[in-house]
Amino acid sequence: MSYDPTAAPTGLEFVRYEKKGHVAYVTIDRPEVRNALHTYAYQDLRRVWLDMQRDPDVHVGILTGAGKAFCAGRDIKFLAGYQARGEQTPHENPGNADYFWGGGGMPYDAQLDKPLIAAINGFAVGVGLTLAMQCQLRVMADDAWLGDQHTNVGRLGSPQAKYLALPRATAAFLTLCNGRLTAPEALQQGIVNKVAPQEEILAKAEELAAMVVAGSPSAVQAATRLYRISSVNPALDEYARQLDRDVAGTDDSKEGSRAFVERRTPVWQGR
User: What's the pLDDT band for 179 if we cut at 50, 70, 90?
Assistant: First the structure.
């Protein structure tokens, strides 16, 4: 099936998407909320991943964030606004046309088999960390950091993905303690490929992209498919999604969102 360039996504509101040669550049563009993701940002990302998969001229992608953050995770203020009205966000509401638990904006959701390079220009937290981990190659600014932070706001997220992708003690530190990994720590543990000053991050990512493009596209995509398949456990993921739904419906989840918006310490009830 041939690719129609006019079918490339247009009207993207929360993501910048451009192609140069065989490289696709994807920039999360919500700097006012540190590139936090909500229903409609997830949808923009999904459109991009699907287009990358279809376009035979795209051999590799570079993912980064606008401004000083890579991605601050889910948009908690967006979530809290719906919770305050006793509602679910569109992508978490089974009765909404935009329903897709987890948002549907992850590369793995679109079964993307083109390799991605994360140019981690600033902190990557929660869903932002998941995004970075779904990129096969990673370049990190020397002042950036990685974190999970889900339990700080009464949510679960996808800890199983961290347990599969990271050293288990490191993953536990991130998911249970809400700890942070600095760029040197991430490099030492093999979580990122390169660390550089922020102004050099994109250039370093482009160097890796050129190395990918030098290889056979069909072989690269086959290797990327195996990377993706070996990184997931479908039965575990389904169980994790159910647990995430359960946790999302607790009083603690609502309290976590309220406390975040009100900039105070949550008062947990354990229910």
Answer: very high
Closest CA to 28 of 100, 135, 115, 111: 135
Residues 45 and 183: their CA atoms lie apart, in Å, by 25
Q: Where are the alpha helices (DSSP H) in 168-216?
A: 168-176, 183-188, 201-213
Q: How many residues does the chain have?
A: 271
Nearest to 33 by CA among 261, 265, 264: 261
Give Cα 112 to chain centroid, integer Å: 13
User: Does 1 have pLDDT greater than 70?
Assistant: no
Residue that has been written with the tokens 């079964």 in this structure: 111
**pLDDT of 2 above 90:** no
Average pLDDT over residues 41-63: 97
Q: Residue 92 and residue 77: Cα distance in Å, rounded? A: 15
- In this structure, the number of other CB atoms found within 10 A of the CB of residue 22 comes to 17
Residues 116 and 193: their CA atoms lie apart, in Å, by 13
What's the pTM value of the predicted model, to 2 decimals? 0.93
Q: Are strands 69-71 and 123-125 parallel, antiparallel or unpaired?
A: parallel
Name all domains of the chain by residue range, CATH numbers in brackets: 5-200+210-262 (3.90.226.10)
Average predicted confidence (pLDDT) for the chain: 95
Condensed to tens digits (0 to 9), the pLDDT of residues 35-44 reads 999 999 999 9
